[in-house]
């Protein structure tokens, strides 16, 4: 079972034809404006070419479970830091209105070594704070002005103690644990919290970003998207509005971030956020996949794997051992594959048919270029430590290379 639980993946070495076809969809054709009118001059006039999309900044989240891998490659790690604007250590949990603690499973020694490495670089250290309270509790904290202010104070103390450059707020319980029926009440309290926290952090010379799920239009009510976060209202108060354009499929097998959905996410946030704050939008780019069991024959042991994460690293090994044939999907800009896994613990046994979906280096390129063409000025990788050399090189190249208008 180690090929499921510890499997990571390297970008499948695929036909360049897929990349060419996908890029053809995304790359626009330079228009030629033909002037015709009463003038005797019937020769065509070519309009000025629009400005090519500007280069984008690169941020990234670093979860604690990849620290060992990152720190084993000091040379490449230091080199990669030079291409990053902000790094968010991803192992700090909000357990109460005045309690912010490292994750129980985060290795303290590796975490400190990594932060020391960040300090020795020019990258900004912007830890992510995760809402680890039960459903509804953070909404309750933010609903009381006195408790909300105490929570802001706790975050300020945390930033002071750790001597960081900014804070990233990743409070996902509103979206995924709290009932949407509570959103209309939570929304103004959330905006008040971000406003107050922004003032405190900015007064201290620090930045504030938020990592939030998508919204699909400018409305703040109704079904489309996670409007509880009021993307448009908080945009003026934050330095980075990180939109998590991934995890399209989680419970059931499917694409991680299909291209048409990513475009819908981009369009939605640009509608919701006033144009003067579009330069604060950061598109979350995935570099990972999932591995799901789909069909099970037999009686599996209790510890048989369910859905697992996969990421760049050792997928080539799994493909070779299981004789897997990856399949490219031009419409989603992703890869998929299936294989069978036999599980036998000596007492019970089963055969799982497992399905994988993942995004490789070409897929990362496509999503970065989509962001650039929309005028988004920053991307963030989920997650640093997942990527292999191919993905990293594609990310850096696509963030900076010249694009046809």
Brief overview, please?
With 405 residues, this protein is of the alpha/beta class. Helix content is 35%, strand content 22%. The chain has two domains: 2-11 and 291-356, Chitinase A, domain 3 (Roll); 57-287 and 360-400, Alpha-Beta Barrel (TIM Barrel), CATH 3.20.20.
Helix content: 25-40%
Please report the number of helical segments.
14
- The 3D shape can be described as globular
Secondary-structure-based class equals alpha/beta
Tell me the β content. Answer: 15-25%
Q: Termini separation (Å)? A: 48 Å
- Name of the CATH first level of the largest domain: Alpha Beta
List the helices and strands and how they pair.
Elements (H helix, E strand, L loop, with lengths): L1 H4 L10 H11 L30 E7 L3 H5 L2 H8 L4 E5 L1 E5 L2 E4 L5 H12 L4 E2 L2 E4 L5 H7 L1 H18 L3 E5 L2 H4 L6 H21 L3 E6 L18 H4 L5 E5 L14 H14 L8 E6 L2 E10 L9 E3 L4 H8 L4 E3 L4 E11 L4 E10 L2 H13 L4 E5 L6 H12 L5
Parallel strand pairs: 1-2, 1-16, 2-5, 3-6, 6-7, 7-8, 8-9, 9-10, 10-16
Antiparallel strand pairs: 3-4, 11-12, 11-15, 13-14, 14-15
Task: Write a structural description.
There is one protein chain. A hairpin with a 4-residue loop joins strand 14 and strand 15 (349-358). The N and C termini lie far apart (48 Å). The chain has 405 residues and is an alpha/beta fold. The protein contains 14 helices and 16 strands. It folds into two domains: 2-11 and 291-356, Chitinase A, domain 3, CATH 3.10.50; 57-287 and 360-400, TIM Barrel (Alpha-Beta Barrel), CATH 3.20.20.80. Helices cover 35% and strands 22% of the residues. The strands form two sheets. Strands 4-3-6-7-8-9-10-16-1-2-5 form an eleven-stranded mixed sheet. A five-stranded antiparallel sheet has the order 12-11-15-14-13, with no helix packed on it.
């Amino acid at each position: 079972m180690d090929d499921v639980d510890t499997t990571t993946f390297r970008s499948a070495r695929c036909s360049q034809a897929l990349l060419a076809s996908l890029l053809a969809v995304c790359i626009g054709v330079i228009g030629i404006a033909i002037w015709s009118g009463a003038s005797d001059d019937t020769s065509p006039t070519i309009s000025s070419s629009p400005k090519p999309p500007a280069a984008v900044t690169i941020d990234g989240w670093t979860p604690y479970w990849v620290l060992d891998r990152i720190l084993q490659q000091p040379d490449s790690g230091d080199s990669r830091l030079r291409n990053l604007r902000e790094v968010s250590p991803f192992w700090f949990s909000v357990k109460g209105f005045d309690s912010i603690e490292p994750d129980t499973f985060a290795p303290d020694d590796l975490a400190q070594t990594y932060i020391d490495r960040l300090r020795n670089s020019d990258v900004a250290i912007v830890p992510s704070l995760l809402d680890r309270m039960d459903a509804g509790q953070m909404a309750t904290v933010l609903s009381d002005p006195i408790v909300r202010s105490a929570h802001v104070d706790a975050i300020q103390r945390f930033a002071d103690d750790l001597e960081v450059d900014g804070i990233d707020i990743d409070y996902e319980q509103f979206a995924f644990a709290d009932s949407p029926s509570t959103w209309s009440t939570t929304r103004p309290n959330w905006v008040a919290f971000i406003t107050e926290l922004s003032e405190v952090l900015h007064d201290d010379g620090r930045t504030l970003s938020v990592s939030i799920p998508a919204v699909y239009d400018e409305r703040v009510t109704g079904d489309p998207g996670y409007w509880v976060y009021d993307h448009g209202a908080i945009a003026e108060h934050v330095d980075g509005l990180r939109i998590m354009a991934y995890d399209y499929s989680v419970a059931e097998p499917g694409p991680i971030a299909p291209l048409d959905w990513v475009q819908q996410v981009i369009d939605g946030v640009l509608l919701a956020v006033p144009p003067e704050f579009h330069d604060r939008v950061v598109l979350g780019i995935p570099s990972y996949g999932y591995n799901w069991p789909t069909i099970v024959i037999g009686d599996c042991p209790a510890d048989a794997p369910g859905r697992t994460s996969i990421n760049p690293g050792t997928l080539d090994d799994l493909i070779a051992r299981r004789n897997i044939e990856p399949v490219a999907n031009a419409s989603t800009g992703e890869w998929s594959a299936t294989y069978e896994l036999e599980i036998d613990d000596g007492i019970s046994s089963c055969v799982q048919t497992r399905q994988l979906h993942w995004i490789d280096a070409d897929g990362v390129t496509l999503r970065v270029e989509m962001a650039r063409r929309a005028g988004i000025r920053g991307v963030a990788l989920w997650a640093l430590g997942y990527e292999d050399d191919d993905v990293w090189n594609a990310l850096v190249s696509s963030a900076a290379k010249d694009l046809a208008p």
